[in-house]
Predict the structure of Phytanoyl-CoA dioxygenase.
Amino acid sequence: MSSGYKGLYEEQGYVIIPDLIPEPVRTELEEACARVIARTRSGEWTHRRTVGRQFPPFNQAHPDSWGVQHVMHPDLHEPSYASWYTSRPLLDAATELLGCQEDELQMELFNLLINPESHAFSLRWHRDDVRETATVDEEREALAVWHHGVQWNSALYKDSCLYVVPSSHKLPRSPEQRAHSSTMDAPTSPLDMPGAIQVVLQPGETVFYNSNILHCATYDPHQRRATLHACMGSTRGGASRARNILQHGLLWMREDRFRDGLDGRGRAMLANLIKMQESVNGDLEYSLQN
Ligand SMILES: O=C(O)CCC(=O)C(=O)O
Ligand SMILES: [Fe+2]
């Protein structure tokens, strides 16, 4: 991929890339999403994000869902997710943005973000791996570390849920920004946050964003959403992504039946994840709290 995407990604903390989902694949993914969304809403698939809770562990108390977790899980029998996750256009984008070689790519999370059925819901302003109580110095220190991972949202339908503060992945919050992001409450108007913009994705577009950019999201039950939400790392990060990734409980990825369903590229990426998992002791905390 020859582009200015990496420069923009580093400068703004996010970049929108079109066309990472070829047309026939998009239809397959739309159909797979319709099936897993139905299974999640019916309660059959219990790995889900529940309305009222922003971060894992997601409880099972609330009936409405805003996300489907672990779409590559073999129990879902939907091979199109793993085959897209390891597809050429996506791997080219990830290696460019990560600045690594393909054999250094580490398989990580793949979830689906959906509209709740009957409740409007919002996420508060947050960085995925820095707590809202961090001091300016703690924030500066956390943001100075290169995290060796990329995260993205790929919209199957038009998606205007996400808000970000461009370039905030490099800067501690200003006092005003801190005032808008220090409580557990979601904003009533996200654009009140100084510097905030709304990220609007047309169907088929992908936004890659630094997971420590200041961001929030709003979910409208009347606006159809099926947005592929995934991340990938590079082995250059060693175990630095362990907490962020392994807190989601990925035992199923160690099963032979999962590995057997992957192609050669996927198996190599999975082997890198398992190596990282084995290099740390299982006792991990959660990055953020609800
Ligand atoms: O819904 C989105 O686009 C953002 C989700 C998010 O920020 C998160 O899962 O931490
Ligand atoms: Fe987030």
About this structure: The pocket of fe (ii) ion (ligand 2) is lined by residues 126, 128, 215 (CB under 6 Å). The chain has one domain: 4-278. Residues 4-278 form a domain with the Jelly Rolls fold (CATH 2.60.120.620).
